[in-house]
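Quick check before the chapter quiz. The format below is the same one you will see on the exam, so make sure you can read both the input and the output lines.
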Amino acid sequence: MSGKPRLTYLNGRGRMEPIRWLLAAAGVEFEEVYLETKEQYDKLIKDGFLLFQQVPLVEIDGMKMVQTRAIMSYIAGKYNLYGKDLKERALIDMYVEGISDLMQMILTFPFSPPDAKEKNLEAIKERATNRYFPVFEKVLKQHGQDFLVGNKFSWADVQLMEAILAVEEKVPAVLSGFPQLQVFKTKMSNMPTIKKFLQPGSPRKPPPDAHYVETVLRVFKK
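Here is the expected output.
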């Protein structure tokens, strides 16, 4: 096995996508193993690879890591994307937690029953424009810096960029009332590692489609 981190998940976004984003933003190449059957998933559990019987699984630095938040904390710390002191880390944690709450709505959206899709889409738009994006607009405006914390690129910036693009896929004009976030998005898009990740052919996954939903239900069926 090479020294690259090895990611085991489905061939889609889900809970692995923020991990892909963070590794890519740090300029780290990784390998992926895709689960396609329940048997593959059950074997990982049986072999003791999954501490809590859940993926994502990331093999890095001799560890088999599970739990998205723990994996991302480790990657952020390892690649100097986690602030310079405890106070900065606390801010990054707060912002990341907030963005994760918004992303949870996006994560579950493809699994909405058809009659709930419109209502759930409206909820994503309402939360993004009234609860989450105003926070980051205000932070960027108040300190007048390019990044959310300590004027240095961090895990929080990566998460926010992912969230902006994910919401825009569903609500294209969502940033119309947020000039600071528009500038932030442009700057982030032009950072070399992120620019590379946004190119066709990168490990970034497309929005979930019916096939992805089908695969998730098949692999994780009780």
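If your answer matched, good. Residues 110 and 209 are 7 Å apart (CA to CA).
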